[in-house]
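Lab notebook, design round three. We kept the backbone fixed and only want residue identities now. Task for the bench partner: fill in a sequence for the structure below.
Input structure tokens:
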């Protein structure tokens, strides 16, 4: 038998700080080579830290000097966007402008449906306005646009399903626009999406039993405009708005009652929110995208 040497090479996507090698329960000094007589029972474990970093686009033209990609360990991150605004507001440290999304947020994701015209429609946002769209396939932009995170007004509020959340005050955050909120503009005006950090007030909705009387439905009542609810008009051509109840109208009750589902989209375990100059962006590993619009290069 002869001894042999094992050399360690740290890939560019990690760092020596925090890297660890464990051989048969013994911690080794990294990246010092290990020379020994090896046996089939030897077990080597490597622990390599994942860190955020940016890489500049391979283009020497001055106008592209600030265009960079964001990576997390070996994973190239892509931002959910259909183009246009690609400006990020970077800080001195990565933690100043890009933060991980907690795994617990997946339990706060919902989609809201109604059945009419012999089809199932789901409430969706597109270009910051709302309409009822036909139930989309997963992994598409329509699925993203039909998913909302319910932000509890009171952090102490707890519920397992929305049907159990009677009276709970919530705000709606679009899945692909973190940090923005769905707001109403008053009765008979459409719902829109705004960035509350820019001075817009947040709209709070109360989750109440569906006005149509069915056990499986809920309605969303404005906390500030009592008796006014999120309303679809039971039409795919009409926008979603806030409408106020004036009498016992069956059509009104149906138009304000939604079946809640687990969100059509879910956060990847590796997901981040990056602060933009004009809006925040949801970043996920490029390999997790299926049929959604995205960008990998941003102005940083």
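Proposed sequence:
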């Amino acid at each position: 038998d002869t001894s042999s040497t094992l050399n360690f090479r740290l890939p560019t996507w990690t760092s020596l700080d925090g890297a660890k090698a464990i051989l048969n329960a013994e911690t080794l000094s990294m990246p010092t080579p290990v020379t020994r007589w090896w046996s089939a029972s030897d077990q080597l474990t490597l622990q390599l830290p994942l860190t955020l970093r940016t890489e500049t686009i391979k283009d020497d033209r001055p106008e592209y000097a600030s265009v960079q990609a964001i990576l997390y360990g070996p994973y190239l991150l892509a931002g959910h966007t259909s183009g246009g605004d690609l400006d990020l507001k970077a800080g001195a440290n990565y933690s100043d402008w890009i933060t991980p999304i907690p795994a617990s947020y997946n339990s706060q994701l919902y989609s809201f449906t109604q059945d009419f015209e012999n089809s199932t429609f789901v409430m969706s946002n597109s270009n910051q306005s709302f309409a009822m769209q036909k139930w989309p396939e997963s992994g598409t932009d329509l699925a993203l646009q039909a998913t909302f995170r319910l932000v509890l007004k009171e952090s102490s509020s707890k519920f397992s399903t929305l049907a159990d959340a009677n009276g709970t005050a919530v705000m709606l955050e679009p899945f692909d626009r973190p940090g923005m909120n769905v707001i109403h503009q008053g009765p008979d005006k459409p719902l829109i999406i705004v960035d509350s950090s820019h001075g817009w007030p947040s709209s709070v909705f109360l989750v109440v039993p569906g006005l149509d009387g069915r056990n499986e439905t809920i309605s969303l009542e404005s906390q500030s405009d009592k008796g006014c609810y999120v309303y679809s008009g039971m039409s795919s051509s009409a926008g979603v708005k806030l409408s106020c109840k004036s009498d016992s109208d069956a059509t009104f009750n149906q138009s304000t009652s939604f079946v809640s589902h687990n969100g059509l989209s879910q956060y990847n375990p590796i997901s981040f929110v990056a602060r933009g100059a004009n809006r925040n962006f949801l970043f996920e590993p490029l390999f997790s995208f299926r049929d959604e619009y995205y960008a990998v290069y941003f102005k940083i």
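Keep this in mind before ordering anything: The chain has two helices and 25 strands.
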